[in-house]
From TrEMBL:
UniProt KW keywords: Heme, Iron, Metal-binding, Monooxygenase, Oxidoreductase
Entry keyword annotation includes Metal-binding: yes
Gene3D superfamilies per the UniProt record, alphabetical: Cytochrome P450
Protein name per UniProt: Cytochrome P450
Pfam families registered for this protein in UniProt: p450
UniProt-listed InterPro entries: Cyt_P450, Cyt_P450_B, Cyt_P450_CS, Cyt_P450_sf
Protein's UniProt keywords contain Signal: no
Domain of life: Bacteria
Length: 408
């Protein structure tokens, strides 16, 4: 084991973006708690499964980026607080209070009631794709599907879906264009501003025109129950909007590529569609959309694997490295849809376990199942190593484009 500090640039290469798993394997083996040095702060990456589970539920590793030390300024910049001060970036008891407000909307029973609507949305999107014989599945399917579902759940008018999607995609694809960095930052900040202004005005509209949707329920929790402040109302709406579609979109894209590049597993799922629920879990373990959990702050000196992590350090739990840990999963780099379901941490662990897990699983099962059923001969239109991905510096693992062909 080495205590050498790794520069962040090691993880910002095109090769790493294409396939980070060899680098993750080296970290697990040689530096399971890896110091990463940078000009603004020092951070540590935790890569082994058991350490990752402990860290994700360690109260000494705080999610509150907006406390007195204002860590968010170092990480996200001064314009982030208007959208990011929410339950994702908070600790109990604040986190518990905020999570309780929205948890009733994400019960398994309520989500299961959405199944017919999700299936209809999937079929409508595929009806537009099928006559073409080819598609960019990210643009035509993987991104709009969860966006439409979460917008319907929140109560965002259909006439606004396109521009809301536009703002979120500017944020999602940050760093992927050829524009100068200062122009890229300005574009992202403008998209954040526009989205914040839109959600603020939408909340006011819902206040004047109550409806049977999630934003309406949040307004009621703010105005009549006193469970949310006005700012928390807007930031919670943003979190549900962004988290409700971003990771699911990237998951569907990653899962499709994994299946198309593992034809034996693709054939297995076509012939045994009853494997879909377990297949979604294995595909999430194999190449999840959130490689590193959102950052944590060490509120005191802590130690993992004999490595001293000083108070104030940023700690990143590398979910995708932990989910390929051979100490936890046999032959972890092999996609095995018949694998006995193991306790992967693709949805997190502990108090911050993904609130929308039931919705994400359902969208994945319906979406992937329909792709295989309705697009015969589905195949990549370019070699897998030519697929354009989000930049390595992105917090998400996903595709910019997914060109495919199929038989009509």
């Amino acid at each position: 084991m080495t205590d050498q500090v790794v520069p962040p640039s090691e993880f910002y290469t095109d090769d790493f973006a294409a396939d980070p798993y060899p680098a993750f394997a080296r970290l697990r083996q040689d530096t399971p708690v890896c110091p990463v040095g940078g000009p603004r702060f020092d951070s540590y990456l935790i890569t082994r499964f058991e350490d990752a589970k402990v860290a994700l539920n360690d109260p000494r590793l705080s999610k509150d980026l907006y406390g007195p030390e204002q860590h968010y300024l170092r990480i996200f910049g001064p314009n982030s607080e208007g959208l990011n001060k929410n339950m994702l970036n908070s600790d109990p008891p604040e986190h518990s209070r905020l999570r309780q407000v929205v948890s009733q909307a994400f019960t398994s029973r309520r989500i299961e009631a959405l199944r017919p609507r999700v299936a209809e949305t999937v079929d409508n999107l595929l009806d537009k794709i099928i006559p073409q014989g080819q598609s960019d599945l990210m643009h035509d399917f993987a991104i709009p599907l969860p966006m439409m579902v979460i917008c319907q759940l929140l109560g965002i008018p259909e006439t606004d879906h396109e521009r809301v999607l536009g703002w979120t995609q500017v944020i999602r694809t940050s760093g992927s264009s050829s524009r100068p960095p200062e122009e890229e930052r300005a574009a992202v900040q403008l998209a954040q501003l526009r989205l914040h202004q839109y959600l603020t005005s939408l909340v006011q509209y819902k206040r004047a025109h109550p409806g049977d949707d999630l934003i309406g329920a949040l307004v009621d929790a703010c105005d009549n129950e006193g469970k949310l402040s006005e700012r928390e109302l807007v930031t919670t709406t943003f979190l549900l909007l962004f988290a409700g579609h971003q990771t699911t979109a990237d998951f569907i894209g990653n899962a499709t590529v994994a299946l198309l590049t593992n034809p034996d597993q693709l054939d297995l799922l076509r012939t045994r569609p009853e494997l879909l629920p377990s297949a979604v879990e294995e595909l999430l373990r194999f190449d999840g959309p959130l490689p590193v959990a959102s950052p944590r702050i060490a509120t005191e000196d802590v130690e993992y694997q004999g490595v001293h992590i000083p108070r104030g350090s940023i700690v990143g739990v590398v979910i995708n490295a932990a989910n390929h840990d051979p100490a936890q999963f046999a032959d972890p780099d092999r996609l095995d849809l018949s694998r006995v379901r193991g306790p992967h941490i693709g949805f997190g662990h502990g108090v911050h376990y993904c609130l929308g897990v039931s919705l994400a699983r359902m969208e994945g099962q319906i979406g992937i199942g329909a792709l295989l059923r309705r697009l015969p001969g589905l195949r990549l239109a370019v070699p897998a190593d030519q697929l354009r991905r989000l930049p390595a510096a992105s917090p998400f693992r996903g595709l910019l484009e997914l060109p495919v062909e199929f038989t009509t």
